[in-house]
Amino acid sequence: MTASFTQIKSYLxxxxxxxxxxxxxxxxxxxxxxxxxxxxxxEEISTPEEGMILEHxxxxxxxxxxxxxxxxxxxxxxLNGGLGTTMGCVGPKxxxxxxxxxxxxxxxxxxxxxxxxxxxxxxxxxxxxxxxTDQDTHKIIKKYVGDLNIYCFKQNRLPRLRKDSLMPxxxxxxxxxxxxxxxxxxxxxxxxxxxxLDQLLAEGREWLFIANADNLGAxxxxxxxxxxxxxxxxxxxEVTPKTRADVKGGxxxxxxxxxxxxxxxxQVPKEHTQEFKSIKKFKIFNTNNSWINLxxxxxxxxxxxxxxxxxxxxxxxxxxxxxxxxxxxxAGVAAFEGAKAVxxxxxxxxxxxxxxxxxxxxxxIFKVEQGVLVRNPARQFPELPMIRLGEFxxxxxxxxxxxxxxxxxxxxxxxxxxxxxxFGADITLxxxxxxxxxxxxxxxxxxxxxxxxxxxxxxxxxEL
Length: 464
Known about the structure:
The N and C termini lie far apart (62 Å). The chain folds into two domains: 5-348, Alpha-Beta Complex (Spore Coat Polysaccharide Biosynthesis Protein SpsA, Chain A), CATH 3.90.550; 355-456, UDP N-Acetylglucosamine Acyltransferase, domain 1. α1 (5-13) runs antiparallel to α2 and α3 crosses α9 (222-231). Helix content is 25%, strand content 27%. It is globular and about 65 Å long. By secondary structure, it is α/β, with parallel strands linked by helices. Strands 1-17-11-14-10-2-5-6 form an eight-stranded mixed beta sheet, sandwiched between helices. It has a four-stranded parallel beta sheet with strand order 20-21-23-25, with helices on one face. A three-stranded antiparallel beta sheet has the order 8-16-15. It is built from 13 helices and 25 strands.
């Protein structure tokens, strides 16, 4: 049973929420009251019609002069609301050093500097921060002053609700943990409200590329940009083939009401969860790389807020079960008439969520070209290796101290590490490698070659 918003509103006004944030929360809460934990009608779900999902390789590239004209009308937005807590870090995740002494933010800025230099352009960087990352981010970006135009805006700050009473958490008891940023779908509310949309339009910008700050494969794609300009497509979602690592990722479906609809796992009836995860039935997933025509976005907003389903995110804060009312950026695909999806190469989706991902992107499977991770052509297999490092590698600090240098994994298929395993310098891993240390430590010496091996024990190994 939900509490009435009248009960909640007076409390919110006392917690330094802006009138706009109160209005936004009321909108989300009303959707929650109407639909509760929204689930789709499974019988209405089907595969998108032919032509709704385009193949990236079939899109023509613009010639140099055309590309320059398009780039001059483009801006880039990175979703920068996340903290590095998953890897045991404090502060914005984008400040973590990931490759060649560069942070996520360094690589993003390097990308845009290279793009601007190539086309003699001035593509700006727009950062959507959260209240958790905004202050630190403003300090971080001072080092880029004069090198790139950077605009920042903040996601809204909304109250977490206790699961038992559906009332806001006590600020007196929980402090800032009583609040949360309401998902990357908040872009459609926070971005126009910030005034940056109008500012970009005044500068003559027409297209905005949006991607997560931790996606090292995301960059401005000239084929998609040309397609949007030529076809007057208002919204493009990038999707890519699903693997075993992506079974929980949102996918695109058709419903009776919408030709393209983002389906998240939270919207799937429990009895169909395994079917949703099936690689055979749902072969693609949303990378969260999106493209928006800014003029169309402005027109859509004159009719009211961009419609998105309310997603219920269950969390526990200091032992207390709570819910967060959120929306997804990709849900915008259903709000723009004529929206399309483009099936892109897996190389455009290289997120770093855990240290497992960090080992992959720091390895010799990739190299960095102008701030973008590029596959090493010496890798003979199209698939990336599966890496599971285990609990002793969860934090960035633990990860760093257990790898003297990053191993050569060019020919690796699978790496599973169980227990406290330490890797010496110049190690090569090939095929399937499993190391298990039930107690103590397992030290792998400098220069070791492990190919299709299963190692167990808790001693330092002298010869492999």
